[in-house]
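Structure ticket #2291
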Amino acid sequence: MKIAIIRLSALGDIIQSAMILQFIKANKQDVELHWFVDERFKDILENHPLIDRLYPLPLKDKKIYQTLKILFEARKNNYDFALDLQGLIKSALTSRILSRNNFGFDKNSLKESFAANFYHQKFAMSYNENVFVRYLSLSAFMLNTEFEPKNIYFKHPVFEADKKLSETLREELNLSEKNILLHLGSSQKNKIYPREKLIKLCSLILQDEKVKIFLCWGNDFERKMAEDIEKTHKNIFMLRKINLKELSSLTKIMDLIIGNDSGPTHLAFAMNKPSITIFGATPSKRNAFETSINKTIDAGKKIINAKHINKKDFCITQIDEKDIFALVQDLLYA
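Resolution: structure written out below.
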């Protein structure tokens, strides 16, 4: 059996979607899984032990002809199923090209409802439902099997770190007894916890001199933020810009990962590493799955419809750094 998985972007969504790999392989040991992804994010999936073939697509540069050429060539693999986890028109079309027997959510379960017109098999589940439950439920529907949300608690690490790279980073960073990776950015400004509050949080954490905090950044705005925070304490260290392979290896050697609703904190959850994810105008109950070592904190705002998020809502600024610190203590000294 061959299955085409379509999850083109973005980083955090790809990381969260990857949990279905172990679920599918557990239910269909003889299955061959091919993943179609925007080439910008291929590094996070490259050499994954449960992906038999990876198809990076040149979508960012809008190379439509090249993308279609790749898809029509891949269609010759004669996929039994095509599974669209993204639910956008472009991903639905991709799944339709790859197989006539394609699966996706129905029109009421999608942000871009028109995408449902391209699916042969449609599954109904509220868009407000937890994303992991959505992805795994759709996969179970495709396989005609059952899925229990409680099984998420028993997942194996979704990604493996390069051991040699992890050791290289360990030596490069001169780690302390306790080490925290603090991710500063996110895809949207209203999802970023304020610099001033992060400085206060770091000050609280670093009352313990055996702790080091490493700042991770991805663009010029975040870099400036990291520079400002680094100046405030001798045990805060701004990292050089790292790639996706290094991110996995760095996550592996940290004791705690803290960040906004973004790919790096979702990666910590995927790798079964302790984490705290800070939510503002995006729904924590939908976008994360809490465990004994993976915690979330939000502004307490009730978000009724996840399809319509107010990008001008900066309620994340209302979260008290002392409340985050309380979670840090619970996880770092458990």
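Closing remark: The chain has twelve helices and twelve strands.
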